[in-house]
Amino acid sequence: MRALIIALLAAPALAGCVSTVKSVVTAPVKAVGQVADWSTTSQDEADRNRGRAMRAREERLGKLTRQRDKAAEKCRSGQQDQCQRAEVLDHEIEAVMAEQI
User: Fold this and answer.
1) How far apart are CA 59 and CA 52, in angstroms?
2) How far apart are CA 80 and CA 18, in angstroms?
3) From CA 43, how far away is CA 32, in angstroms rounded?
4) Who has the most CB within 10 Å: 56, 71, 87, 95?
């Protein structure tokens, strides 16, 4: 009878120990999984990054194109230094368009 009472009283304490042991055993597995998540790029993240890069490239091309157009207009009005600037901007535009994303 005494053994039964001791066993019933010890049961809640054992449940806590089992839970703690389970947590300690599974912690390294969870940590490795978290490190793997942090060190890899998901497809969604890769798509977002590619979209950002494409938008940045398009903004750069737009800015260069506007600058080239202004320089070409000034070149046509007789400013010779702007002719060279328009040519340089043309080459920059070609370089940006040739970049890999």
Assistant:
1) 11
2) 85
3) 20
4) 71
pLDDT digits (tens, 9 = 90+) for 11-41: 566 556 656 656 666 767 666 667 666 677 7
Q: What pLDDT is stored for residue 4 in this prediction?
A: 57
Cβ neighbours, 10 Å, residue 81 = 10
How big is the chain, counted in residues?
101
Cα(89)–Cα(86) distance, rounded to whole angstroms? Answer: 5
> Could you say which DSSP state residue 77 is in?
T
Residue type, 14: L
The rounded radius of gyration (Å) of the Cα atoms in the chain is: 34
The DSSP code for 78 is: T
How sure is the predictor about 2, in pLDDT bands with cuts at 50, 70 and 90? low
User: Would the CA dihedral through 79, 83, 88, 89 be positive or negative?
Assistant: positive
Residue with tokens 């054992």, as numbered in its chain: 14
